[in-house]
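Dear Dr. H.,

I hope your travels went smoothly. While you were away I took the liberty of generating a structure for the chain from your last submission, since the lab meeting agenda had it listed for discussion. I wanted you to have the full record in hand beforehand rather than looking at slides cold. The sequence, exactly as received, is reproduced here:
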Amino acid sequence: MSNHDLMQRDLAVLWHPCTQMQDHESIPVVPVARASGIWLTDFDGKRYIDAISSWWVNIWGHAHPQINAALKAQLDTLEHVILAGFTHEPIVALSEKLVALAPAGLSRCFYADNGSAAIEVALKMSMHSWRNQGESGKTRFVSLAGSYHGETLGALSVTDIPLFSETYAPLITPQLRVPSPDWTLAPAGVSPEQFARQQFAVMETLLQERHAEISAVIVEPLVQGAAGMKMYHPVYLQLLREACTRYGVHLIADEIAVGFARTGKLFACDHAGITPDFLCLSKALTAGYLPMSVVMTTDDIYRSFYHRYETLKGFLHSHSFTGNPLAAAAALASLELFAEDPQLLRQQALAQVMAEELALLADHPHIAHVRQTGVIGAFDMVQDKAGNVPFDWRERRGLKVFQSALAQGVLLRPIGNTVYFMPPYVMTADELRQVIQVAVAAVDEACAAPAVGRDPGVSLP
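The corresponding predicted structure, in token form, is as follows:
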């Protein structure tokens, strides 16, 4: 089979996600024949470094031998069984491991099949829990400006991406928004911690005035991914946890993108030393092998649904593939790889290389807001850094970066004018240096070139 043959078949039958399909009349899709480690290989033998872990999921790279072996063994034993009234060893073992690793007090695991579904579960579980406790008025949710929590309708209601919120507004229940603590918005001379404290004042006021109607606050801890890898100081999480407890509001931590050591600790909440009421995990949970998500919560919330007679007090959510044994086996194998290095030395070493390379970009005339949290790095392309003049994101210069980097054998997928790196943990120091050097060369090319049309929407990750 050739690249051309598969591309032609693809365009005849497939509709790709987060894609304006007309783009593929001039920008070919990339056929992948096989993958191993950080490398994707097409049918013509060209290789690409997967610098974004294929939408942030393949933390151990592709076709990892230990995870492969675990899946093969599980396939010969049990591929799937209904989880309502039945159970199996992989899902119990996975739940035990997650409870042991997660912030203290998160003792119950409820499974779904993707990140958006996990958010739906957490929102429903929060509201339903308050209702079971006689607080039926607590039906509203608070999220941050620029937040992204998924694309199903409940998740969209707490997502602040204009393309979604405007397009699907008739289907969405309006929720409450507060300003983001993203430090790139801070005035000159204001530190990330000071800015986080200043921004939290708005959240504090909202909770004080309207806590009787608020079920939960939902945040992406430390890094707002789809907003363009916007980062903030952990003191915001500390203040938020204290306020949610004080005003009787649940805290939902959406760690779908940042969990499993992306931020330098196993969970982003660990940086603030807090335990949320709900912890949502997906993406890296199965190391990119199979769809699975989990919502972890406390015994107090679990007990609010526990009743001898009233079925309607039980939690009402299900799907056919909940707790799939193959996905659980992949997740267990991934956690075993963490157990081989409980200090996360590999991630720390990779983060150090990233920091060194990003530091070299401080004087680049078209690169601003260089930032990093753990093994997540990002910067923004600007028209004129000295004059603080950004590019119009509708010019789609990020698309030019994608094309240029791909031609040099690196998969990047900028978000608007933000170029980011979320490499697999198996990437070497030299490979990461190569990725960042290619990205800078792609930025130079994109900034020098004419605009690639004007997109009336927004660029998605």
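Two observations you may find useful: The chain has a mean pLDDT of 94. The first strand starts at residue 34 and ends at 36.

With kind regards,
E. W.
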